[in-house]
Each structure stands twice: as structure tokens, then as C-alpha cells.
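call fold(seq) -> C-alpha cells
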Amino acid sequence: MRGFVTDCDCYLSDIVPLHVHVPSEADIFGVHSKLVTGETGMPQPIEQLSWVENYTYEGLVIAIFILFCYLLYNFRGDILQLLRFLAMHTSSEKIYAEQKLFFKRFINLSTLLGILLICGLSVKLCDYFGLDGRLPATGILNVNLIPVILLLIPGIILLYRYLVTGIVGAVTRNQAFFKSYRFMSHLSGSVSFLILTPFFLLFALGDGNSTTFFIYLTITIVAALYLLYLGKSYRFFIERNVSILQWILYLCTVEWFPVSLLLLEAMRMD
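ret:
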């Protein structure tokens, strides 16, 4: 039997494997995608963005630092006067009688510093204690808006206190009493904000064991300053022959009610 030679037998070459790139799941679904196996078939939770790792919070910290330095440089005499008031070496009535236009400007700027500081402390403490994780997952736009939203809360509380004391003073025809008390409250708040600002700046953008130490130290100082303010508030009422019951009623209605309402709403969001 004869064999035949064909063209295919003459020109057939060796098979060369083709080097083709096979796309992975990262190429198709993105670098953050994960391969789900049968054991881990449950959907993975969306990662919660940090409240302090955004430009809004960092800008807030820078604004606090600049305003604090401005107050230290331009109002050194007024700050010393506030420290004497804190140490009970002078009274709020004497400061009110001797105040000048620059002192009113200092009080307004220190109040602005306090609003920024309360917002920054709230953001940092919520992030440190993991309270931000109780809220639904937010996009980067909402995370950047959180400091702005928290910035409105102290302003709303101050407006509420001003309106309530104004209405009560008008009804009782005792505007001078509440005007003097608001001034005393502004003095206590201003000196407290100036004392707390350096401690906040120490841990505002940091992390680690030193941050933990300064956070708990700041919380302790906040508690001590508020107790000192309560003592001044109590003395203010007693010196004007106002009963303790009315003082407690004032604290519950004007100062504690808006804060407790905000805490209650925050607990409901959990």
C-alpha cells in the first residue's frame, strides 16, 4: 500500500502556546473587590469612613489653631483678667463695669473659638470611641459634611439659651439679672475654651498611646471646669437671694434640656 505525501505533512509546524492575559477579579470589579468563597458567602459590611480623615475636619483644626494664636497675641491682658476671674480674684460685675470695646470683641471671638472647639472635640471623641460606627455607612461627601453639621449644634444651643433667658427675663421683669448671668456665663466659657484648646490641639490629628492620655486628660479638665462653672452659677443665684430650687429649675430648663435632647436623639440612631 502506497503512502501519499501531502502539503499538510510538509509545512506543519510545532504548536506554540499563546501568552494571553487572563483578567482577574481586580481588573473587572476593582482593586477593592474580594473573592467570596463558600465559607464566607455572607455579604461583607461596607467600611465606615473615619470622621477625622477628611479635609473639613483638618481645616477645622487649623482654624482653631489660628484663632487661638490670634487671641493669645492680641488679647493677653484680657486673658489674664479672665484667669483672675477663674481664680476668684475678681468678680464678673467688676469686669462688666470696666469692660471696653476691645473686651467685647475678645468675648465674641472666644465664643467663636468655643463653638469650633466643641465641634472638633465632638468629632474626635466620636471617632476615638467608635460612636461614628453606630451611624449608617456614609459616603465621603457626608463624612465631610459631619463637622459642618456638628458646628451648628453649639450655635443652636447658645441661641436657645439666649431666647429662653430673654423670654423669662421679660416675663418676670428681671432682665438685668439674666443679662448679668449671661455675661458671667460668657466669662466662664471663654476662659474654659482657652484652657482646653492647647490640649485639644495635642491630640486633634494624632494617634497612639499619647493621644489616649491627652483625650482622657482633656475629659477630666472639662469635668473640672464645668463643676467650677456650676459653683459660680450657684453662688451667683445665692448672692441675689434666689432659691436653690429656682437655680436647679434654671439648669434643667436652660442648660441641660437641649443637651439631653441631643443625646437622646443620638441614642435612638443606634
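Residues 55-268 form one domain.
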